[in-house]
Amino acid sequence: MPDLDTSLHLDMLNRFKKRNGLPLRLLRAIKREIFSKDIYGLQWGDPDVAPPLRFIKDRYVLPYVNAKHNAIEIGPGGGRWTRYILGFGKLYVVDYYLELLKELKRNFNMRNIIFIKNNGTDFPGIEEGSIDYLFSFGTFVHLDKHIIEAYLKNMKSIVKPGANIVIQYSDKTKIMAQLNKGFSDNTPDEMRQMVLNAGYKILEEDTTTLWHSSVIRFTI
Ligand SMILES: C[S@@+](CC[C@H](N)C(=O)[O-])C[C@H]1O[C@@H](n2cnc3c(N)ncnc32)[C@H](O)[C@@H]1O
User: What gap in Å lies between CA 50 and CA 27, rounded to an integer?
Assistant: First the structure.
């Protein structure tokens, strides 16, 4: 421990003041505006920056990306997570709203991406038994249980045996989900039951990393 005559604390304060003087703050703001990625969804947290989201990305997303595999993202929004799974052979992005698919296309219009407008629970045009990885974040947190159940039923035929299905859902055992009126009524116990009732095998659960939701990984 430094003694009382240490300059440590004043040095730290001076470094902070230097970094946060008006000229440097202005420069950083201009850089941010010019180079910002302008992706709809980053306002909810950037998985490159926010530690809990970074953990989810590193554990549940990046390890599964494979150019020989096919993937689906349900509810991609502006592509906050899509940008990490562009390396799949085929990437189906499935959304209920055409406007959101258009917004995604504005950011990501690669040749391996197939844009699909669905009817809220289905996978039109996706071949049976063809999907290795299915991911959804920021979408199931808003879906009522009957819609989740319909999705679980419908995704069964399009995934391959052994596929990895990763879904983030609302966790009303957490105070931040209880306070959010847009979050649906769901808990890890209920989600687990729905997944098992639909005939899947649970591989992994994370009920601690996120402050308003939980994540489940399962397969057939
Ligand atoms: C809150 S945004 C999250 C977007 C993105 N995944 C993210 O984390 O930034 C929810 C997304 O789910 C889509 N969505 C809502 N209900 C849906 C449904 N039943 N099926 C598919 N997509 C849906 C919305 O259009 C939107 O793209």
Answer: 23
CB atoms within 10 A of CB 191: 25
Tens of pLDDT along 80-136? 999 999 999 999 999 999 999 999 999 999 999 999 999 999 999 999 999 999 999
Ligand 1: which of 40, 57, 73, 95 to mutate, most ligand atoms within 8 Å of CB? Answer: 95
**CA 77 to ligand 1 centroid distance, Å:** 5
Distance 141 CA to ligand 1 centre (A): 9
* CA distances from residue 94 to 15, 16, 91, 171, 173 in whole angstroms, order as listed: 48, 45, 10, 23, 29
* Residue pLDDT, tens place only, 194-211: 999 999 999 999 999 999
- DSSP string over 54-108: HHHIIIIIGGG--TTSEEEEES-TTSTTGGGSTTSSEEEEEES-HHHHHHHHHH-
CATH classification for the domain delimited by 42-219, as one of 2.40.290.10, 2.30.30.140, 3.40.50.150, 3.40.190.10 = 3.40.50.150
Radius of gyration for the chain, computed over Cα atoms and rounded to the nearest angstrom: 21
